[in-house]
């Protein structure tokens, strides 16, 4: 079974590649380099559907897309769907997570709870559409640690990582319990029915 992965983010391609290889070797995941639609949804589900629909229409193959981000409790779930947009500030030499740490510096929140969210849309051309979500709970660190992963990984301390940041986990450790792995797990039965 072939399925298109509708993302232009090389880190996601790598993580999905590893997750699929270790859990669903029956699937052949192919990349997508077609037109990138405007992601103007206000929810993870809307944006994931926008991306998966565009890829399914362009390729004629079943397509899945991940829309993801970090949701910080004391910020009411921000940056959420705008997590990648914040990452754009990297151009000016400021990492996305530094902006987030700055925002939290003056807020009294001893727990600093947050979660990574991955919403995957699966779109079959001319057929069904499904949306699943995986959540990886944890807290925000006060300073970055670790070199692995991408995005907010250096400042995210997953509850199941014994005090290490997501960037201190090996790729195999991250891919065994991340929000992306949990969402893909939920997609499993729907992929079998393709
Ligand atoms: P595509 O739309 O092409 O898939 P993107 O990077 O623009 O790529 P999103 O709009 O879903 O994807 O943005 C997700 C952002 O959330 C991403 O750029 C990171 O800043 C953050 N993020 C998502 N998953 C993450 C993870 O596993 N570790 C760290 N940060 C993550």
Automatic annotation (TrEMBL):
It catalyses: XTP + H2O = XMP + diphosphate + H(+); dITP + H2O = dIMP + diphosphate + H(+); ITP + H2O = IMP + diphosphate + H(+). Keywords: Hydrolase, Magnesium, Metal-binding, Nucleotide metabolism, Nucleotide-binding. The keyword Magnesium applies. Binds 1 Mg(2+) ion per subunit. The keyword Magnesium applies. It is an enzyme of class 3 (hydrolase). The active site is at 67 (proton acceptor). InterPro entries: dITP/XTP_pyrophosphatase (IPR020922), ITPase-like_fam (IPR029001), RdgB/HAM1 (IPR002637). Mg(2+) binds at residue 67. SUPFAM superfamilies: ITPase-like (SSF52972). Substrate binds at residues 7-12, 68, 150-153, 174, 179-180. It holds the Pfam family Ham1p_like. It comes from the Bacteria. Its cofactor is Mg(2+). Transmembrane segments: none annotated. Its EC number is 3.6.1.66. NCBIfam families: RdgB/HAM1 family non-canonical purine NTP pyrophosphatase. HAMAP family: Non_canon_purine_NTPase. Homodimer. Pyrophosphatase that catalyzes the hydrolysis of nucleoside triphosphates to their monophosphate derivatives, with a high preference for the non-canonical purine nucleotides XTP (xanthosine triphosphate), dITP (deoxyinosine triphosphate) and ITP. Seems to function as a house-cleaning enzyme that removes non-canonical purine nucleotides from the nucleotide pool, thus preventing their incorporation into DNA/RNA and avoiding chromosomal lesions. Belongs to the HAM1 NTPase family. This is dITP/XTP pyrophosphatase.
């Amino acid at each position: 079974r072939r399925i298109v992965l509708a993302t232009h983010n090389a880190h996601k391609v790598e993580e999905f590649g590893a997750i699929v290889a270790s859990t669903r070797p029956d699937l052949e995941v192919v990349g997508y380099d077609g037109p990138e639609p405007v992601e103007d949804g206000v929810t993870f589900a809307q944006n994931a559907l926008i991306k998966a629909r565009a890829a399914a229409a362009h390729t004629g193959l079943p397509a899945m897309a991940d829309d993801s981000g970090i949701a910080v409790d004391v910020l009411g779930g921000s940056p959420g769907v705008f997590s990648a947009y914040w990452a754009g500030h990297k151009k000016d030499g400021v990492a996305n997570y530094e902006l987030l740490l700055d925002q939290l510096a003056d807020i009294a929140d001893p727990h600093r709870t947050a979660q990574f969210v991955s919403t995957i849309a699966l779109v079959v051309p001319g057929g069904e559409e499904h949306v699943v979500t995986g959540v990886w709970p944890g807290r925000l660190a006060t300073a970055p640690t670790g070199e692995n992963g991408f995005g907010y990984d250096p400042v995210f301390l997953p509850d199941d990582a014994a005090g290490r940041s997501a960037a201190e986990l090996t790729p195999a450790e991250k891919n065994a319990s991340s929000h992306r792995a949990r969402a893909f797990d939920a997609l499993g039965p729907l992929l079998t029915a393709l």
